[in-house]
Amino acid sequence: MRLKILKKHRIFVPASSHFCAQHKDASWNDYQTPMYNYSKDQVEEMVDLLLNDENLPEIRATSDDEMRTCTGLSHAQFDILLSELPTLTATYKSKDIAKVVLMAFLKRMRTGHTYDQIRYSLDLSYKTVKKYINAARASLLSDFVPKHLGFGTFSREFLIANTTEMAKRLYTSQDDTLVTIWDGTYIYCNKSQNHELQRRTYSGQKCRNLVKPMVCVSSNGLYIDIFGPFEATQNDASIMKFVFDKHADPIMNKSKPGDV
């Protein structure tokens, strides 16, 4: 609202302002203040407001079912995820803008909608949607992933505690043995005009273009790490051989010398 007032009426409303019923019928001219009367902090606040000018809509109130359909998360889970991304909030200096940024990314991941479909649903420009999705991805990689994903994130004892009794009975007779499940999955992509890339991403099994991430989870479904993506021409066995060649003992987080 402050941004709309500034753009449409050329009137700056500081963040500390409030609306009262006593002056609701006053004209806009009654509130205009000459530029030379603004303080340094108010001018900086005005500049920040304009720099964040994205014509952003507010996320309308939706039920948890609608939220899950669009993002895969409930409102409470969405707020928790946002709180895990301080870089995103700091970049846009507004929690409301950060919400829309994260919403655009989650919609893209959940539904696979094109940038055009997302921009129409959020009333944004194509360029803005593209920038938001890249910003959300970068923030997740810097803030969220290192805290919640990777063998270095979990202790061996924690992962053993997440091993189900069924897995222990089937695969081991010792309580200190860790059981993990590895499976390659698919991320479908468009056919590339680059002939070499087209060949590397074409799966003869699925008859489609795709890349293959290798997912490692505990027996109760806890995501431990995700490797890749790998070429569509590689099978699970060759991918696992590559992973274990690169990481001598990923469970103990011991990498070969020179590994990044």
Please give a structural write-up.
- The protein is α+β, with helices and mostly antiparallel strands and 260 residues long.
- It folds into 3 domains: 50 residues, no CATH class; 85 residues, no CATH class; 97 residues, no CATH class.
- Strands 1, 2, 3, 4 and 5 form a 5-stranded antiparallel sheet that branches.
- The C terminus is likely disordered.
- The separation of the N and C termini measures 47 Å
> What's the helix-strand series?
HHHHHHHHHHEEHEEEH
Uncertain spans, ≥5 residues at pLDDT below 50? 251-260
Q: Based on helices, strands and strand pairing, what is the structural class?
A: alpha+beta
Mean pLDDT over the full residue set: 79
Judging from the principal axes of the Cα atoms, what is the shape?
extended
Instruction: Compute the number of helices.
Output: 12
β-strand percent reads 5-15%
What Rg, in angstroms, do the CA atoms define? Answer: 25 Å
Number of domains: 3
What's the count of strands?
A: 5
The helicity comes to 40-55%
Question: How would a textbook summarize the main sheet?
Answer: 5 strands, antiparallel
